[in-house]
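We close this part of the discussion by returning to an individual protein. Part of our work consisted of pairing the sequence of a single chain with a tokenised description of its backbone. What the numbers capture is local backbone geometry rather than side-chain detail. The amino acid sequence and the backbone structure tokens for this protein are reproduced below.
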Amino acid sequence: MQPVMLQRNRKCQVYAAISIWSIIGLDLFLTLPNISMLHSQIYAFNGVLSASAHTHHTRFPEERLEAFTILVSTFLLLREWTEPNDSTYILFFQACERLLPKGHRLYEQVIETVVYSCVRDGQMSAKVMHALHNIAPDLAQQFEKIDAK
């Protein structure tokens, strides 16, 4: 039993390190002279979204839920600081697919809310639509019908 707890504690430490690195990384990206402020902010935030998406290999559902919470919090913070780009939405959709089972009560609700945000921000590119088809085909078809009108 002890090795499992040690392994779990180690994973929590890794997630904490990712969070700390992301905060430090955000500060570093904000001060880089060769990258515009807008691109550096999006790049840093997208890095956190990507890190959240890659925690799906854990065996512990509570860790996936924690990663999902970080994902949503980061996305909301990003929207306060800057405008998301199409890569932001693609990463968000991929992370949702990896972190939440399709039958989860939050899955459809979160995806639909973020899709509306994506459309409102003018970021519904072909790449975003492709990502949406992979994770929520019915929702993607609804938006294709709206777009066709």
Residues 2-148 form one domain. The chain has one domain: 2-148. Residues 2-31 form the longest helix (30 residues).
